[in-house]
């Protein structure tokens, strides 16, 4: 056997792996053909099959370190790509918990079936104790994820998922310019579940696409109803709706968004799409095209939690962006941490130079609002002005609202 980088080369006739030997890697056959042989309890040699290019062999070693269950011999000169148990474990750790559980269960059953077929007879104990322990921990997380995903899917169809709306205030004149729609799940038994818990699950399971469609429709219709209770104003109120990466993967995203907006009779200029830097980094070309189309249709694009991503600033030129939302962690620390203050200042300068609107998130005290206003921030959102609230509460709030006095 010869080794080049992660490849191993076996000559025709060479044994690649031997039944009973310890194993900690699997192989993908890049070139060549192999045969799989097995010696049963009575010592009879049996041919189990042959495998060619692109097949995986020795795969069971990557779930445990139990001995090889068969012997594999090269029938031709073979080029094999090695997948170590460590590499496989790392990939599994990065996969979502349900995929992890399914992979583990399928591989375990597969091994189990072979065990029952008496390939191993009584010689080896299965499963090894460490594997049982590992499965338990992994599965607990998967069970929780599945439970949340299933319950969230049902809740979406019921009244248990709602949108709350948080006013966004002009730091120039203290008036309300728009709202951010934030999802709320009021579970009949568990009470309010934080979006920080259910949004990631919805994203992992793909349910977020349905949830976002629902949220956009609901937010547009609510905006229409809210507009009816506020006095006529020079500039129309807007609604900012959050979207995730998965929403951008769907081919009909722009069409769906456009149709929903048209059906609800708000104008596209009243709708702002909030996305994080992550969306832009993960699929830059797709995001660019999608955002351009949305912008062309009249909508605005806001970058949420700006400053917390790991992107370089150069990408700002690449995408059509209207608004930067400064993450609340910087706003919160501004008065006690000069680095946060410098960062907020830099974002505001950047926004101004690039003709973007700036919004400060999580403004809780007057001093923060004054400071932000002084530094040239355009808009602000936070408990100082109003918490996110239901449509009913918002309408009551708006009936008594007077512009914030600086
Ligand atoms: P986000 O988009 O950054 O939303 C702002 C969060 O800050 C909201 O938390 C809001 O309630 C909270 N907040 C607003 N003002 C203040 C303040 O003055 N102080 C403090 N401490 N917090 C303030 P919420 O509603 O719990 O949402 C958490 C995150 O969940 C959101 O962060 C967003 O990333 C996600 N999320 C919520 N609704 C949706 C949705 O409909 N779709 C998607 N994709 N994500 C959503
Ligand atoms: Ca947001
Ligand atoms: Ca945010």
Task: Describe the 3D structure.
This protein starts with a strand and ends in a 6-residue tail after the last helix. The chain has two domains: 139 residues, Sandwich (Jelly Rolls); 257 residues, TIM Barrel (Alpha-Beta Barrel). The protein has an eight-stranded mixed barrel with strand order 10-11-13-14-15-16-17-18, surrounded by five helices. With 406 residues, it is α/β, with parallel strands linked by helices. The structure holds ligand C2E and calcium ion (2 copies). The site of one calcium ion has 4 residues, from loops. The site of one calcium ion has 5 residues, from strand 15.
CATH topology of the largest domain: TIM Barrel
Number of DSSP E strands: 18
Q: How many structural domains?
A: 2
Please describe the biggest sheet, giving its number of strands, its sense, and whether it closes into a barrel.
8 strands, mixed, barrel
How large is the share of residues in beta strands? 15-25%
Named CATH architecture of the largest domain: Alpha-Beta Barrel
Helix content: 40-55%
Shape: elongated
Show unreliable segments: 118-137
Distance between the termini: 78 Å
Ions, cofactors and other ligands present here are:
ligand C2E, calcium ion
Identify the CATH class of the largest domain: Alpha Beta
Query: What's the helix count?
Result: 14
Radius of gyration: 29 Å
Average pLDDT confidence is 88
């Amino acid at each position: 056997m010869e080794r080049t980088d992660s490849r191993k080369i076996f000559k025709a006739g060479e044994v690649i792996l031997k039944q009973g030997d310890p194993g900690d890697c699997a192989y993908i056959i890049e070139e060549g053909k192999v045969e799989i042989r097995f010696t049963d309890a009575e010592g009879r040699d049996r041919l189990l099959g042959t495998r060619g290019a692109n097949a995986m062999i020795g795969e069971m070693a990557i779930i445990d370190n139990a001995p090889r269950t068969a012997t594999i011999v090269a029938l031709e000169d073979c080029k094999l790509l090695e997948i170590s148990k460590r590499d496989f474990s790392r990939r599994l750790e990065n996969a979502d918990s349900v995929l992890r559980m399914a992979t583990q269960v399928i591989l375990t059953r597969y091994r189990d079936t072979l065990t029952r077929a008496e390939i191993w007879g009584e010689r080896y104990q299965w499963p090894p104790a460490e594997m049982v322990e590992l499965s338990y921990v992994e599965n607990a997380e998967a069970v929780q994820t599945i439970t949340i995903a299933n319950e969230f899917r049902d809740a979406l169809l019921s009244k248990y998922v709602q949108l709350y709306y948080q006013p966004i205030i002009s730091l120039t004149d203290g008036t309300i310019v728009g709202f951010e729609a934030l999802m709320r799940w009021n579970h009949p038994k568990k009470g309010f579940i934080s979006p920080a818990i259910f949004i990631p699950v919805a994203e992992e399971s793909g349910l977020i696409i349905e949830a976002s469609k629902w949220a956009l429709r609901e937010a547009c219709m609510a905006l229409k109803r809210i507009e009816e209770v506020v006095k006529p104003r020079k500039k129309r109120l807007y609604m900012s709706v959050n979207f995730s990466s998965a929403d951008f993967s769907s081919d009909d995203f722009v069409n769906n968004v456009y149709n929903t907006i048209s059906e609800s009779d708000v104008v596209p200029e009243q709708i702002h799409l909030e996305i994080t830097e992550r969306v832009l980094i993960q699929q830059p070309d797709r995001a660019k095209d999608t955002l351009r189309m949305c912008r062309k249709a009249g909508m605005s694009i806001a970058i949420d939690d700006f400053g917390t991503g790991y992107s370089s600033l150069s990408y700002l030129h690449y995408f059509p962006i209207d608004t930067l939302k400064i993450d609340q962690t910087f706003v919160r620390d501004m008065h006690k941490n000069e680095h946060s203050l410098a960062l907020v200042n830099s974002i505001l300068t950047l926004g101004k130079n690039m003709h973007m609107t700036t919004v400060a998130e999580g403004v809780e005290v007057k001093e923060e609002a004054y400071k932000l206003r002084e530094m040239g921030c355009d808009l602000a959102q936070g408990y100082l002005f109003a918490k996110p609230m239901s449509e009913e509460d918002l309408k009551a709030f708006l009936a008594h609202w007077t512009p914030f006095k600086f």
